[in-house]
């Protein structure tokens, strides 16, 4: 199969259009040349013949008058004028004979020239009746000349009319054909543009869809129906996709191995901690140290699990156990648990909800999403602050909004806070620190459900996180209009 590159396809299309335009232009020029030749023929032949024929009529009339005056008066002046006029008539007849464009005109003019020569010879030899009006041969020749000239004028007039009609026909036909060719050229141009565009954009569209799937963790091979550079691009993307898939799988395996290796010593440390804590041999002043060890173990274990989850999400192997759930029943226990931590900072938590439909979601992962967001709200809210949680239907589905009166986030950081390990600049305002993976997991879990998350915040004015889940069920949730926890 011949490989047509994108460049060759475009050049082929443009060349086809140019060839059609050249053919149409050549046809129009040929027809215009025909019209030009026809007009030139009319002007140089027929019109000229008509004009000279009318002049000859006047000359013959003058010649006949001079002959009559000479016959009556015998004045040689009139004879000389007759002979001079006769020479002009012969000269014009000879010129007409040379210019004659048809056999009929040529024969007619030749007969006129012969007849006129007879008149000249008869006048020159004085072979005429004293009364010219009584000479039938003379009058016959004169009438023959005049009628022949009338015939010549009429014939050329008809030829002119016929030629003009032909020119009009050619002009109309040329316009029609030119319009037809223009329409054909436009049609071919549009079709060529559509075909070329389709042969380029369709495989590019497949590439875009394929790369979007790769971005979502689906590393299926991309197939394109093309035979140009786009195939090479698709092959390169497929090679890249295969390598990324292999790298992600290797990374996931590595993270699982790391997590596994961390869990074993952590479990051993936790067991040792628990034994020492209840052991009578441990003095009470060492219990605080054991508490620190316990807290550290919990943080390392939590970080290990979160990082492992991130690796699974990024490699596309995270599983979601989807079921119809009541978001209020998921969120209410989390708020109750968080209340214990919030009370220590004298932070009020309000949970408000209106009747909302069930959503198809993984209950455990929804709990992690809400727990992380509420925990962050408590962490970044100063003492005597307020956290409000709203559950309500929205155009997208069901929305959970968590609003705090905390330290807020700078506008230029809003797009970065969901990045793994990112720490906001104003984190120094609070005593505690985080791992920087909580919001990354929140965003990944939300998008894994087909949902979306938005954030609005300003420094020292608090933050608002909105999580929206699509509706996959139509069973409404009946909850109290307002439920406040403080």
Describe the structure.
This protein is of the alpha+beta class. It folds into three domains: 6-192, Four Helix Bundle (Hemerythrin (Met), subunit A), CATH 1.20.120.340; 229-314; 323-485, Histidine kinase-like ATPase, C-terminal domain (Heat Shock Protein 90), CATH 3.30.565. Helix content is 65%, strand content 10%. It has nine helices and ten strands. It has helices at residues 6-73, 76-99, 103-124, 136-215, 229-278, 287-314, 327-344, 363-379, 438-448; strands at residues 323-325, 348-353, 356-357, 359-361, 386-393, 397-404, 452-457, 463-470, 476-477, 482-485. The protein has a six-stranded mixed sheet with strand order 7-8-6-5-2-10, with helices on one face. A two-stranded antiparallel ribbon has the order 1-4. Strand 7 and strand 8 form a beta hairpin. Helix 1 (6-73) runs antiparallel to helix 2 and helix 6 (287-314) packs parallel to helix 9 (438-448). The chain starts with 5 loop residues before the first helix and ends with a strand.
CATH superfamily of the largest domain: Flagellar protein FliS
- Indicate the mean pLDDT: 76
Widest β-sheet, arrangement of strands: 7-8-6-5-2-10
Given this structure, which CATH class of the largest domain is correct?
Answer: Mainly Alpha
Helix content: 55-70%
Which structural class is indicated by helix and strand composition?
A: alpha+beta
Q: How would you spell out the order of helices and strands? A: HHHHHHEHEEEHEEHEEEE
Q: Number of domains in the coordinates?
A: 3
Helix tally?
9
- Count the strands? 10
